[in-house]
Amino acid sequence: MNxxxxxxxxxxxxxxxxLLTTPVLAKDRxxxxxNMFNNMPKAKNIIFFxxxxxxxxxxxxxxxxxxxxxxxxxxxxxxxxxxxxxYTADHITPDSAGTMTAMMTxxxxxxxxxxxxxxxxxxxFNHDGDGDRLWTLLEIAKQKGKKVGVVTTARVTHATPAAxxxxxxxxxxxxxIALQALPTDVTYNDRLGDGIDLxxxxxxxxxxxxxxxxxxxxTGSRSDGRDLRREFQxxxxxxxxxxxxxxxxxxxxLPILGLFERSHMExxxxxxxxxxxxxxxxxxxEKSIDLLENKKGYFLMVEGGRIDHAHHAGNAFRALTDTxxxxxxxxxxxxxxxxxxxxxxxxxxxxxxxxxAGYPMRQPSDLKYDFGSAPQEYLDNDMxxxxxxxxxxxYDISSSTGDITARTAKDGAPxxxxxxxxxxxxxxxxxxxxxxxxxxxLGGADTLIPDEFGNTGSExxxxxxxxxxxxxxxxxxxxxxxxxAIGPQAWMFHGTVKNxxxxxxxxxxxxY
Length: 512
Ligand SMILES: [Zn+2]
Prior knowledge:
Blueprint: H1 3-20, H2 22-29, E1 45-51, H3 56-67, E2 80-85, H4 96-105, H5 137-143, E3 147-155, H6 159-165, H7 174-180, E4 198-202, H8 228-234, E5 238-240, H9 243-247, E6 256-259, H10 281-292, E7 298-304, H11 306-312, H12 316-336, E8 342-348, E9 351-352, E10 354-356, H13 376-384, E11 395-397, E12 404-406, E13 418-423, E14 467-470, E15 476-477, E16 481-486, E17 496-498, H14 500-511
Parallel strand pairs: 1-7, 1-8, 2-17, 3-4, 3-7, 4-6, 5-6, 13-14
Antiparallel strand pairs: 2-16, 8-16, 9-15, 10-13, 11-12
Helix pairs in contact: 3-12, 4-6, 4-14, 10-12, 11-12
Bound molecules: zinc ion.
């Protein structure tokens, strides 16, 4: 084939791809009638899963932790995937407010912003007003007569859930965000019609008067003295705060406000210790689908909100166990929903500076050859850790003797597979021998104990993976994240796209 023909073929291919994707979006925005897409399979329901901070390295590490190197998470089994670019209108490395606004409205926004476009600056620091509110997919679904639900393990007023139903130029104004969901308040977001049908997660303090003790003995932090728990009930909501209240929920209880914790809900690992009891994310998803199912369909946003928080704390263990629970919730949705009329999308809002490093060996039983000697801690990986030892230090094999040893860095200390580019797990230079390390555990199997590291005088008692740059809180990362999709129009996810494409596909799946 000559060069000209090759180029023509290429151009035709590009045009074809263009036909299949871009025109939908352009025409959709301009409200043109588009017959071309009339016989596309339409989604009655959409379940949108957001793993907050669940970058690709987090998915890989969680897979190894949960089901082994060659196992499959439920999200791994989805037939359609794409890479998603997460930058905001003003930052290379984004935050959850800007990215969730992009995914819920189709317009790339600035970091810190909820529900406004790129001209709206954070906290209105230019004092020029916030401008026009964007439409969110949840608002659009509600206008179509669908039921809508927001479920998170973070505070329900936190950036990701808030970007479904609120409009504020400062994500930290959580007192205001709570009011926008309250149908009887003057600042109510009236695009929500008769209200969000189901809102569950943490964040009771923004619904409880400042200083007042709540159901679990924690104090509220509303500066206006209002008790929104009561006001939501006066507006027709069923309010629950405990496992028991959750267990008793029935369809006739809609609309529902569930606030299971003063701030964010517990990490999945710590959940059994909660005073009033908390449902798992999986249980919340199962119940939500049961309650929201109806003739006109529903939109449900589910956030695995604390994957992000564990990473910020430099504690890989809780990031992995929360991702594991997030994946269980996805599995339940796949099992319960009819995939002929339900589009399920799984993605992350951004990544974290989290890496799987060195050349670690797989588990002893995974190896198909006989090896020489190996330390007991490595051999124990098989017996005690059904989890692939991903939290362990790096063991590697000598190609001359076949002996397996813990690898050491230039300073003589072993190093873990998992680590962060920055954060509070920084060890001062030179790193000490493991037995003298004030961050015990780096020398051996202790990295496997989630609470080994006692950061004296602080609330953080969780083990922290090593970090290269000393920061109080580990940061997000700028690389692309993955999108996994199944159901009607899931095929629209392919290639590398901007995260706003998620809104475009969801809107198209509801419309065409
Ligand atoms: Zn974060």
